[in-house]
Amino acid sequence: MVEHSDIRVVHRGGSKLNFREPLITSDSRFLLCASGQCVKVFSTSTEECIHDLRGHTDLVTGVLPKPSNHLQVYSCSADGTVRLWDYTDGILIKTYVIGYPIYSMYVSANHEGVIFIVTPMQSDKRSELFQLVAVDLPQSADQLVEARELSAVLSDVSSNPAASAFGRGGEYIVSAKPLQLEVYFFKKHKSYRFPLKADNKKGGKNTFTCVACHPKDDCVATGHEDGKIRLWRNFNHKKEYTYSTLHWHHNAVSSLCFTPEGTNLLSGGVESVLVQWRYKQESQRDFLPRLGAAITHITVSPDGALFCTSHSDNKITIIQSCVKVSAVIQGLVKGESVRTDFMVDPRSKAMVLNGKPGHLQFYSLQRDKLLYNLDIVQQEYIHELGLQQFEVVKAAFSASGNWLATVEERKQKDAELELHLKLWAFEQQTQSFVLNTTISAPHESWITALCFGLAADSQTTVLVSTSKDGHFKAWQLDARAHTDDEGPAWSCDFVGAYHGLVPERCCFSADGSLLAISFQEVVTVWTPASWELLTTLSQPPGAIRDLCFGQLSCSKYLLGTTAGNLLCCWNLLTCSLEWSTSMDVSLLLADPLSENMAAFCCQAGCTDLFVFKPSEPRPAFSHKAVCSGRVTRAVFAPREKMLESCEEGCQWLNHSQLYFLTQYMDLMTFSTKAEEDRLMASSKQLVIDDSVAMTPFYLLLGKHRQQQQENEDALSSLSAERTALPKGSAAIRELLQTPAHVLPSTSLLCSMFVQSLLISVTDSREEKEHAENEPESEKEEEDSEEEMESSTLRPKQPPL
Amino acid sequence: MASFKPTKIQVYPKLGEKVTQDTLYWKNYKAPVQIKEFGAITNIDFSPVAPHNYSVTAFTRIHIYGPFSQEPVKTFTRFKDSAYCGRFRSDGQLLVAGCEDSVVRLFDVSGKVALRLFKGHTKAVHVTDFISDRYQVLTGSDDYTCRLWDIPNATELTTYQEHTDYIRCGVTSKLNSDLFVTGSYDHTVKLFDARVDKSVITMDHGHPVESVLLYPSEGLLVSAGGRYVKVWDLLKGGQALVSLKNHHKTVTCLCLSSNGQRLLSASLDRHVKVYNTTNYKVVHNFDYPASILSLALAPDDESIVVGMTNSILSIKHRKSSEESKEISSKQRRRPSYRVFVKGKNYMPKQDDYLVSKPVKQHLTKYDKQLKKFNVSKALDTALETWTRMRKPEITVAVMKELERRGTLKNALAGRDEQGLSHLLNFLIGNLADPRFAPVLVTATEAILDIYQSVIGQSAVVDRQLLRLQELLEKEADYQQDLLEVLGMLDTIFASSLPRKEVPCSGVSRSNGLAQGEASASGPQLQAT
């Protein structure tokens, strides 16, 4: 077993977008949000990710604008640094090393050069106590600065960034603890505390959940666990403070935000309704219901034109101030658990798994973007805590991608299990899946596995579902038993059982002629043509955990893993065990495009990967300690373009890429060094086109400029000789495209620039000849180049 | 943002009649035109030539109607008593009719006065028809005889005295000028050949025969009498093929559709049934307001004409293809369609700025309440009488939705006596329905939990609760019976099916052991 150092485990997208409050830039064109270890910059109008600000080595815990320069932002991270970025170009300007993990950060215009961070109490790093610390950012020209001037402001604060806020542009800071509101005035160096009782008379919970300060007035809004919002006034007195209560939410208020002018207060919670309260006329409210999932953060752009809400389903919604949704930025929805297997849609090559409650999400792996959500349950989602909802638990695609089968279930206490098996047909016209058949209660108990296969005549598909009730059922598209007003529907073709044992896994062979179903310790092999039991295989002890047929030339092999830590390979021609080895395989899967199989083995809290061919029991590739914990979800995703790697160890990556989900819901993949370099290069090519805002002024001037340009073009084409300026000169391009502040001194550049302008005589003649001979073809080439560039720039429309 | 998703109403397999090609065909008639005649309409006959006028025999008159006229185009009134069986000749020019006064009259369709009078019967003549050579007339009478008459000189040719009761129906062969069939109240149907002096075939119908009909091929004969319609094979010498009993009163009239594929029978039970002539299953059914005495189909099934005992003639015309389309499109239009369409067909010019208006989503009443989280009101709307009676699946779906939202108890609670009795009524009606049981059982349990404190306060509710209890006990017994039957069937099947050996189980074991890699214990599980 050779360790292949050039194949590495890479983090591949799908990280959280809703971890912290997003930030809308002052011109409302960009939205910045912390996403894993980087900060993502999105366009607010096109929803596209423009670039990532990479540099932090741990979770980014906050993004805030620099008050003195609206083109720069601070980001803080759990790695103990605060970084200053130029977000338009994606350049790291400065790194301030604090040295303690930072959980949240606050800045204010009143406190120039000071940021406030929340760090754990220094006495004990693992303690649950946090303090608010002011950090003086030293003025220095260096890139890396150590900020050591810390002064504690408040102790025992919450690590939740929503629980503290600056008021009146930084005159005071408000911090909420579970049952106490603390206001600290910077001028007086004095703090006031306002405690609340744990429960009020009606049994509501008074715990503070979030705080927001009015930008103009001395007013603090606090959200509470029981859904109440309290507006505190007069809090610069210990005794004479007052508060009024607003109540609309029925669950905890998770976020509060005032608009920049202070005319409106926005609040949101589990109900996923954005509520807009008029300040001082609180009986007037506007609602924006059905935002999809619980609201976790609300932000308002500095000019008040855009609101933006983060949702628990890893989504950011951008809302215009007239309470209309204008854009949705959706990340990979991972929820609490991934119930369905990972699948790859054979048509769109998107990864498919269950997403929002009752939905199946189609996620493009190449572009790290959610393509769309398919509503499976088709019921109004009730946003209420503790309510049992329908969930998509199983899904399967037919080989051609024409059919999709889904299973949804809901289990309530002391009620029967509700199960629905739904079959979706792909419709060419709308390019989406359309519900064809709903089968309520297809089985009496939970469905354990679901798989599609080709039927005996290899024309129609057959679906096999196995259930805990001890039966497996075959479903077929039935063209007979229906009238002409409806299309063909699916119906049960065969019900099978084996000695009352519970079937766990099922798998079709590559050509669809055999069906293997595992019943605890026994593997039964059936022929779908006549539904006859052909043979049984077993390798006790231990129930079968995973079952998989070999692909392509290895289709005569059936592989199974048992709970008794065995990986067995049966030869179906001889019905005998070909080989077996002892390993605790947590997941076994076959690459549909090659003979390779991947086995994730759990060993001592870590997962190892073995890639092998069923024909020889020696791994083609192995990777120790891929990640910690068990890997239970993985998928082979076919590549868009085949790799041509000759190295023996990397050949298994040629056809498809292996993606897997770690214990902590991180989506990882394996990639080679060369491939990564290529990716990096291509991402650098993706420069943002300088999209100028479409103002009337631009329309006027832009048209004029275009015309001018055209004229120039015409001129230049007339005098081809004169345009001998080396357009492609790297020096000029570098000079023009790199921002000024990162360039070396002008004196250095000058000579280089002038040199680049000089044209050697021979060169020019050659070029002249060239231009004379085939000026048209050259132009064409240029054109085609431009086209190619534009096509790479433009994102391909997802095939919906 | 995402709009409200309405409650999903589960579609259950339909238990009622299916929409078939036949229902579509036979439903494609307009609303009937009704014409009041002077008495019970005993016979209707279509002229075989275009424009296919039809004669209607009622009381002492015979009216001839045009295909679309509501007024008779011609009337024959020269009868002393009730006229019977006005029939056209195959060229549509002559009409023959019997009469209560035993005289058979022959009319020219264009004239008024009878051309010939055939006298000789001694009692009322109920059956008249032209022989297919067009020069002879067949009559059948209550004096038990049937006779053949020569038209040119109005003389009697033959008399057959084989029936022993009234002859009330008869038909002549269209293909052979010598054959005719008569049916009599003596329960027999007889086939006569004019070339011999007696009947050729006698068939016993078993009931007084009211109507006979020959298939176009004339190989099959249909007779109706009592509640039965019977089909006989003439080529096999009068062997009975099928006996149909689909009416619950006497069948009075028979008729074939123009293509010969469907047989229609009309009865005193006010129904017309349509049979498929290949499998003799009823494919469609018409209801009429009174007992039907006569029935006729226009050529190409253009109209169905039915005469009833209450002297009403009902004519249904087939919808033309455009009409049927138009009507369906009209139904889609609302009365205020023009208001909706106003300005919709305006084509925007190039520089126009389009302000799009959101399409308003139409929600049903209960969905509107559900959207507002008014759970009790939602259940109230779903329990409205019409919905509760006609569409219980809607009520059940709303209950299911409430249960999913965890608010079923809230919705069920707080009802007064009337509301509760509505609810209980609904449960009593639908609880035993296997389609609804899973939802309704939880609802019933919740109701019993909520209202157990008020039991005994209202007589109405108590009675309903008792009924519910009875229902449940009955259902439990029934289920137990079913399980017993299932158990019996299982034993029968188990003993009748041969036990199948599964191959290869032994092979896998031996190989597994031979490899030496299997665990020491070896596989214990074996397929048997």
From TrEMBL, chain A:
Domain of life: Eukaryota
Keywords: Nucleus, Repeat, Ribosome biogenesis, rRNA processing, Transcription, WD repeat
Region of interest (Disordered), residue spans: 763-800
SUPFAM superfamilies in alphabetical order: Quinoprotein alcohol dehydrogenase-like, YVTN repeat-like/Quinoprotein amine dehydrogenase
InterPro entries in UniProt: Beta-prop_WDR75_2nd (IPR057644), Quino_amine_DH_bsu (IPR011044), Quinoprotein_ADH-like_sf (IPR011047), WD40/YVTN_repeat-like_dom_sf (IPR015943), WD40_rpt (IPR001680), WDR75 (IPR053826)
Start-end of Basic and acidic residues biased regions: 763-773
Protein name: WD repeat-containing protein 75 second beta-propeller domain-containing protein
Organism of provenance: Monopterus albus
Acidic residues bias: start-end ranges: 774-789
From TrEMBL, chain B:
Spans annotated as Disordered: 507-528
Transmembrane segments: none
Main localization, broad class: nucleus
GO terms of biological process kind: positive regulation of transcription by RNA polymerase I; rRNA processing
Pfam families per the UniProt record, alphabetical: UTP15_C, WD40
Domain of life: Eukaryota
Signal peptide: none
Keywords per UniProt: Nucleus, Repeat, rRNA processing, WD repeat
Residue spans of the WD repeats: 118-159, 244-285
UniProt-listed SMART domains: WD40
Function: Ribosome biogenesis factor. Involved in nucleolar processing of pre-18S ribosomal RNA. Required for optimal pre-ribosomal RNA transcription by RNA polymerase I. Part of the small subunit (SSU) processome, first precursor of the small eukaryotic ribosomal subunit. During the assembly of the SSU processome in the nucleolus, many ribosome biogenesis factors, an RNA chaperone and ribosomal proteins associate with the nascent pre-rRNA and work in concert to generate RNA folding, modifications, rearrangements and cleavage as well as targeted degradation of pre-ribosomal RNA by the RNA exosome.
Subunit note: Part of the small subunit (SSU) processome, composed of more than 70 proteins and the RNA chaperone small nucleolar RNA (snoRNA) U3. May be a component of the proposed t-UTP subcomplex of the ribosomal small subunit (SSU) processome.
Protein name in UniProt: U3 small nucleolar RNA-associated protein 15 homolog
Organism: Monopterus albus (Swamp eel)
